[in-house]
UniProtKB/TrEMBL annotation:
This is Amine oxidase. One of its GO terms (biological process) is amine metabolic process. Residues 75-141 form the Copper amine oxidase N2-terminal domain. Residues 1-19 form the signal peptide. Residues 161-258 form the Copper amine oxidase N3-terminal domain. Residues 305-706 form the Copper amine oxidase catalytic domain. SUPFAM superfamilies: Amine oxidase catalytic domain (SSF49998), Amine oxidase N-terminal region (SSF54416). Its cofactor is Cu cation. Gene3D superfamilies: 3.10.450.40, Copper amine oxidase, catalytic domain (2.70.98.20). The lineage of its organism: Eukaryota, Metazoa, Chordata, Craniata, Vertebrata.
Amino acid sequence: MNMKTVLILLGLALATIFALVCVLLTRERSPRTCQHLPPEQEDTEDGQSLVFADLSPEEMSQVVRYLQGHLGVPLVDASRAKPSDNCIASVDLQVPTKAEVLRFLDGGGARPAREALAVLYFGKQAEPNITEYVVGPLPLPVYHRDVTVHKYGGKLPYHRRPVTGKEYMDINALIQRELKKAPRFLAACCESDGTDLVILTTAPRGFKSGDRITWFVLFHNVAGTGYYVSPVGLEVLVDHGDLQVSRWQLRQIFYNGRYFGSTGDLEREFVAGALEVVRLKQPQADAVLGSMRPRRPPGSPGPLQFEPQGPRYSVRDNRITFQGWSIAFGMNPNSGPRFFDIRYRGERIVYELSLQEALALYGSNCPGGMSTRYLDGSFGIGRFAYELVRGLDCPYTATYVDRHYLVEADTPKTNQNSLCIFEHDSGVPLRRHFSDSQSFYYGGLRKNTLVIRTISTLINYDYIWDFMFHGSGAMEVRVHATGYISSSFFHGQGTDYGNRVGPHTLGTMHLHHMHYKVDLDVDGQLNSLETQDMEYEFVKDPWSSQNTIERPYLRRKRLEKEDEAAFPLNGPMPRYLSFVSPNPNKWEHPRSYRLQIISFAGKHLPTTSSMERSISWGRYQLAVTRRKEEEPTSTSIYNQNDPWTPTVTFADFIDNETITNEDLVAWVTVGFLHVPHAEDIPNTVTVGNGVGFFLRPYNYFNEDPSVDSSDSVYFSSEQDAGACGVNPLACLSSASACAPRLTPFHFGGFLNL
């Protein structure tokens, strides 16, 4: 190779290196558009939302230490307490009164004292009872006061307390001892000695106040699968009302359509050949009915949503801000998600938005199924909101927040990453128009929504709770049901109560009804309720008077009393129902927000039922009442185990008081009837199983507030739609270089079980 060739090659190499350096430098400069930008700071709230903040683990621990040192009675850790012991059942935030809070938030008043609500079970007293104390001020409490009588009008009977984990353990031990009395039957029916059978509770527990007698349904238990769809046909009735565990008894046995007085009677009938037995094989993990294990190897990844310049929302302590929205969030361990002081563009729209209860009511020809009316608040909708799976339960890049609770223990527990926040591109325009006449242009706006989500696993069912905030000033509340169906052993006329979904499995019909509280403050605290609907009037055409026109017109009505504003479940309801302010908008219409319910609820329990008053909120798809501090919730955790004398009766809230220019609360019921079918195996899908409601501005503004969005798109036929300066959508090609470096997947949700 001569010198000339070497020089030429060297020159080409230097040119190539120079070009690569230029490219790399350019790439270093271009990701400016990818730099994370802080969300717009919309106000200087300065920690005011902390007045609603859930208790910290440190505050919970301080309350426990205070109670242990100041009540003068021995307290046993609830995780090992017997019914005859005293224990701390739970500690949660005592939300200050609305008047106190508004004086602080709006009037420059003092910050309300931070307090806790402690629930104690006093089993070691002459008259066992449940007592509720307010403890404060936090973080270092120095006082406690008994609020039980003030809240409930009297003492709380001990039998109303929810069943603890320790109580379930003792019940299971009793059942296991009793099953040992029927070894030959168990070997024949279930290929079991009883130790591999699992029990599922029902509720309520009996037929009258004071009862604590529960049917338990037995299932084959196969690790890693949903046992709820593998019943063995055996159900047992346990009386666990006595304070002494040694006195608990198994009262009855049900098997395959027949009832027996004891497991000994069952065994004797079997040995005598007088019992028809359905012989079940021990299910195998790879072929069991409820297995969710993948049947195919992983395919190519699905779409991934990301934020090119980082989240456009902000999470600070218990407060979220997003494009004009401001929301204080929290979690009640019993009733679940709760939100306060929801504002849009600085104006409060909702003071409180909170889940109240979730009811699951079943039908069956087996005793356990036919008597089940779960009130999930008594089990713990918030407590059992476990860690969310990144990339499936919520987008991978969502913000995940821990929640803390103290229930049935003296030490707080943490459900890490159990609430997620993300901006969601719904894939449909919020609004758009393509003009093909007079002038040619396109204008539109993507429907990007802030979503706050948590998911509760309540025994077999998983409820996905969504709270969404739209760029149009609208709020959306939605719940989806998934998880496993509950089932009964298929026998007799089982298909009168559901569908057969397995060889011996009846998917039992049931309804899901959820109840919400919405304390609206639309342009101030004082609101009225207005309905609008359509009618037709028949008129002669005014230009000739020769023809008749069926002209729709708007019928408006102000509802004056609570009784007028109580709309029966599944009954007719005005298509437009608005909470109106005394103040008009620019066009002289009252500023208002419209409530729009999306629901497919089943039938409410007949009012003749002895337990109906405990769920009387379910009578109404909507009831609007005057807000009262002494009516903070529509139900109680104590209603589950004594529905015959309910601690809180919602129907009593409706007493025909005036609702004109008052502080109003909307109580909303949504739900659906579920008749399980083959496609509910292995478990229920969310498609079609979502219900909820909207709160939409109705003449609240002078125009759609989303016109101010920086995401708006507009270009005409005279512009270059491919120019980034004209059309922000044309800038998205460069945003693809901003794909985030995802954090490694981690899941610790099993650590706290």
